[in-house]
Amino acid sequence: MTAASPPRIARRLSQSYATAWSRFRHWPWRPDLGASLVVFLVALPLSLGIAVASGAPVEAGIIAAVIGGIVVGVLGGVPLQVSGPAAGLTAVVAELVFLYGWRVTCFITLASGVVQILLGLSRLARAAMAISPAVIHGMLAGIGITIVLSQLHVLLGGDPFTSARANLLELPGQLTAHIPAAAIVGLGTVALTVLWPILPRPLNLVPPPLAAVTVMTLVSLPMALPRVSLPTELLSSLALPELPDSQWGAILLAILTVALVASVESLLSAMAVDRMHEGPPGDLNRELIGQGAANTLSGLAGGLPVTGVIVRSTTNVLTGARTRGSAILHGIWIAIFALALVPVVRQIPLAALAGLLVVIGFRLAVSWAHMRTLARHGELVVYLVTLLGVVLLNLLQGILLGIAAALLFALHRALHAPVQVVSPENTTASWRVVVAGNLTFLSLPRLARQLATIPAGSRVCLELLVDYLDHAAYEMLDNWIRSHERGGGDVFIDEVASPVFSSIRAGRPPRGRASQAPVPRWLAPWSRWQSACHREGVDQLLTGVDEFHRRTAPLILDVLGELKDGQEPSTLFLTCSDSRVVPNVITSSGPGDLFTVRNLGPLVPGPHVVGDSTLAAVEYALDVLRVRTIVVCGHSGCGAMTALLASAQDRSAMPSVDGWLRHGLPSVQRARRVHCDQNPVDQLGRLNVVQQLENLRRLPAVQRAEAEGRLRLVGMMFEIGNGTALILDEVTGQFAPAGPGRSTPTGQNGFSPAEPDRLAETDQDEPVP
User: Fold this and answer.
1) Which residues contact 692 (CB under 8 A, 6 or more apart)?
2) 578 a known binding residue?
3) Which segments does the entry list as coiled coil (predicted)?
């Protein structure tokens, strides 16, 4: 056997490399491999710092990071979420360690994991969404302040105290002391963590926490500073949890606290991660089971509590992770690092980790965007109550105070009806009393004060925008109305929302809230809402205009202001003048959307007609307004179609109608060639839509616009009885309901597009039969 020549060996090596690279490129975990390395670099210093801040052994943070990454990565329901020790539980764990010792705290972590598993099996994960965001953000801000107050002492070379209040009171003395070397390292870590992202590439590609801790560790090597204490053999530090000797009531409360906070933080992080990628939403109940399993194992192995961590999860998504493999791999990298590089971890000064935690705590505590949002929604008080409760009391009491405040605000909004009295602009106008929301006995003092300001003998319009009246509120209103009328006054009751008051007066009080909201007045006909409150001698039209000024105009004032200098409608809407067809209602459009042309039937004269208003509107819409769509809309039960099917003698007394309907003759001729069992008027209405589209396409303005590719023609049929708008498919010739994802039905309620006979390219001028 002869030895292979060097060129042949080179070719084989090249082919082997190409094969290996090709397999690696198509390896399903390849994107996860890169993402896991970045998440590992972010998670390692944070895990160490959180362990130190919690008063736990440093190895507890590493154990929790490994178990959180691997166990939740395998069992969790949100694949891209990364779990591990989180800053949100730092204050809780620190207090537990101080009160009960580390091994009992491990038992509490284990038991809280079991509680989480039971919650997940009970499918209660979605209940976390019922907690007010103001409470959540207030809790995180309070935790952030607690972390900052405790770690400032470590950063300045001192020792933290057991409570946030003690840390705050002792901080001035710490600040006035001399600045030790620890302070230099801690402040340097803070500065590097904040400023590192603005450095040029490739430096800013390194995660700021890792870069800051690494640099300041190197700077601190010549200094005599307290450093991370880590056993040589990490596995030897694993210890079983210890059962408490007493205080089981307090222990059970601590278990529920850890389970609640860890669950809420994990689920909120999971919902945020779901919004960051395009994949299917995660299973929150499975995620809660995974988090519980991780906490059970972490407590058993001597680790910190585990939660879903938004910082690591965000990093995971942004660096291209595709599957749960990234979270699993990140846990493996931490385990390898901890086992192989214990001497390196021992060189990290505690002041550097304290500086890192000060930055994290400050970012938790200060979120101006959340505060502005809560202030706009009137929930800033709930946020502040929760924050102060967490800082001045403890985490659980702060959360309970926040939930109580949120419930009180919700109760106040639900039961307190706004009452407004508007004085008349002149002596002939009426006083207006506007009552909105739910009117209950809680609102009666305010209502009584407002009603007392109305002079006796005056005319009053009582506008009720309520959907619930309790018995006390009804009695008060009814007694005041009767008393005011006995004094020579006049009270006009206008029930804008549900007719709750009149139903109670008629002896039919509704049970609870109104089951269905009434049709808004800008959509309902006058007969629906003016019949009960129409005042004698006032025209329905003027009443409608007054209603527009009072309620509708304020809603669209901004839109009208934008349209005051011109219009840019996108659609020309050709339809019948029938009062039952309201184009803006059918199309859910508003001012400035539709350029509407209405006449007796949706008819389009031929191009030889000069001076016709319909043709003028078409030309103006296309050449001046540059509309992109023309809709021809017929409707069921059309009077124009009925007149077309009648005899000429029936129209002899209406010469103008007879002359206009001449343009519908081609539609009648088309109908004679189609046999259908449906209503002949509605059949003619559908065929007329098709015919008018053909008439439009013979107009020069339409031909130019279609040739330029800027116009689309749409045929529509509005079924009045069932409120359905049907759209014409010109390929199949069928009308089908509009809507995304709906296929066009064939062979029903339509006509054949393969109809052989076509009308000539000119209008028919013979008399209408």
Assistant:
1) 574, 602, 603, 604, 632, 667
2) yes
3) none
CATH assignment of the domain containing 648: 3.40.1050.10
For the residues of 222-244, what is the DSSP string, one character each? TS---B----SSGGGG-------
Q: Regarding beta strands 724-729 and 307-308, do their DSSP bridges make them parallel or antiparallel, or are they unpaired?
A: unpaired
CA–CA separation, 265 and 89 (whole Å): 9
**Model-level pTM?**
0.59
Residue 638 counted as an annotated binding residue: yes
| Ligand-binding site membership of 576 (annotated) | yes
Residue 61: strand, helix, or coil: helix
Cβ partners under 8 Å of residue 469, min gap 6: 439, 440, 477, 500, 501, 504
Please name the amino acid found at residue 200.
P
Query: Each residue of 146-177: pLDDT tens digit?
Result: 888 888 888 887 777 767 778 888 778 777 66
Residue 364 in any domain: the answer is yes
d(CA 342, CA 664): 91
Query: Is 633 annotated as belonging to a binding site?
Result: no
User: How far does the chain reach from its first CA to its final CA, in angstroms?
Assistant: 105
Q: State whether 370 and 425 are in the same domain.
A: no
Domain that holds residue 340: 25-376
Both tokens assigned to 500: 């709750």
**115 shares a domain with 46:** yes
**pLDDT tens for residues 608-648?**
888 889 999 999 999 999 999 999 999 999 999 999 888 76
Would you say residue 557 lies in a domain? no
Number of domains in the chain: 3
